[in-house]
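quick q for whoever's on today - can somebody do inverse folding on this one?? i tried earlier but teh output was garbage lol. tokens:
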């Protein structure tokens, strides 16, 4: 297996592992000079048997919790919390193809220029392959738990199917066994919006900042509606005018778009969205049921009752296919898909159930 070397970040919490060998992708291509950024909380025991892997969603990153800036799962990670850092060594890598420290299209290739359009198409399996080498480099033979929501859940289930003996418990949140036609359809106008922005330049815009921020902003507006629920938008915004010619809900989406383009790269958005479209645990494995039957981890599957993007039927399929998973757990929330980030109290209860 590939090892790695560690590079610290003296100014902050983030560290990096650089893979010693090029990563072999599902396509057969080789991706050289892969590095994975990560953060950790708590301390490993001698055998590292207390290591827990937390996998972030599309625009998340390695900063899942403080100290310092708030993290995206602060409610779950820390001393005395569901992922109790007095007991567990919590590891959160930035996904391969991302833009918050790990190798992605904005990274500099061997010729000194950004990868841009030369960056290869990735699958969720490629991302998990990189994470497996990353775990090897950290000296973690198996995870006490692998947890993920949304795109993080896609990687978590791939981990448990590809490396059954390395995943001892598994929490899958608001994710599918395979991307559906509906999910690929929602992604299509997002990808089209980015590619239609003249600043996209076929993905080779990195020498002309800020790049296709208009297209990325439109993509986020489309996506954000799918991340929330119709009743929430109705109750929260209704037909209220913003007072500047926009409806309040339009202003809200404009704000979400402006926030994302300040922190996210359009090239990564395209690569990661296509990777999610590729997601199918059953591909080449005799179908979804056959693939899920490989899982050895004690598993909890949870979905959100108001999730219109990854509906409960998809988590029911996962729960029915994974041996011993039992019934799907339901997060009750008005917030739609984003509830896996917002309803940390309910998610904590499922993490505690998982970890016993
Ligand atoms: C903490 C971090 O760094 S997270 C980084 C990684 N991020 C992720 O992994 C996920 C990305 N984030 C998200 O998806 C969301 O921010 C969530 C799900 C985490 C949080 O959702 P919520 O707390 O429900 O936030 P919500 O959707 O209500 O948005 C609130 C924002 O909308 C703004 N807003 C509300 N109404 C309006 C309006 N009419 N016009 C303009 N803006 C509005 C609020 O002022 C607030 O702005 P702020 O975020 O700049 O403070
Ligand atoms: N709000 C989440 C939704 C995708 O799961 C994100 O931006 O990553």
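ok took a stab at it. sequence:
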């Amino acid at each position: 297996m590939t090892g790695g070397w560690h590079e610290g970040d003296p100014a902050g919490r983030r560290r990096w592992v650089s893979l010693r060998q090029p990563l072999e992708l599902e396509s057969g291509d080789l991706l050289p000079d892969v590095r994975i950024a990560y953060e950790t909380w708590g301390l490993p025991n001698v055998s590292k048997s207390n290591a827990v892997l937390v996998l972030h969603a599309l625009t998340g990153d390695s900063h899942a919790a403080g100290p310092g800036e708030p993290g995206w799962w602060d409610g779950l990670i820390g001393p005395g919390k569901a992922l109790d850092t007095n007991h567990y060594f919590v590891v959160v890598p930035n996904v391969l193809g991302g833009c918050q420290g790990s190798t992605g299209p904005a990274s500099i290739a061997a010729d000194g220029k950004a990868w841009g359009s030369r960056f290869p198409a990735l699958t969720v399996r490629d991302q998990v392959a990189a994470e497996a080498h990353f775990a090897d480099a950290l000296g973690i033979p198996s995870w006490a738990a692998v947890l993920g929501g949304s795109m993080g859940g896609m990687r978590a289930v791939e981990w448990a199917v590809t490396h059954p003996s390395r995943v001892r418990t598994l929490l899958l949140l608001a994710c599918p066994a395979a991307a559906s036609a509906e999910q690929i359809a929602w992604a299509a106008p997002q990808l089209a919006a980015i590619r239609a922005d003249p600043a996209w330049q076929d993905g080779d815009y990195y020498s002309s900042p800020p790049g296709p921020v208009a297209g990325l902003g439109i993509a986020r507006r489309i996506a954000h509606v799918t991340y929330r629920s119709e009743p929430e938008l109705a109750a929260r915004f209704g037909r209220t005018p913003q007072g500047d010619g926009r409806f309040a809900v339009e202003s809200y989406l404009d704000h979400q778009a402006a926030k994302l383009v300040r922190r996210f790269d359009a090239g990564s958005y395209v690569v990661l969205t296509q990777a999610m479209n590729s997601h199918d645990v059953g591909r080449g494995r005799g179908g979804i049921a056959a693939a899920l039957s490989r899982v050895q981890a004690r598993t909890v599957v949870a979905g959100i009752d108001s999730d219109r993007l990854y509906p409960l039927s998809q988590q029911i399929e996962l729960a029915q296919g994974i041996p011993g998973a039992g019934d799907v757990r339901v997060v009750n929330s008005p917030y739609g898909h984003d509830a896996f980030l917002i309803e940390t109290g309910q998610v904590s209860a499922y993490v505690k159930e998982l970890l016993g």
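fwiw The longest strand covers residues 35-41. also The pocket of acetyl coenzyme *A (ligand 1) is lined by residues 56-57, 59-61, 70, 72, 242, 248, 251-252, 255, 259, 338, 341-342 (CB under 6 Å). so keep that in mind when u check it
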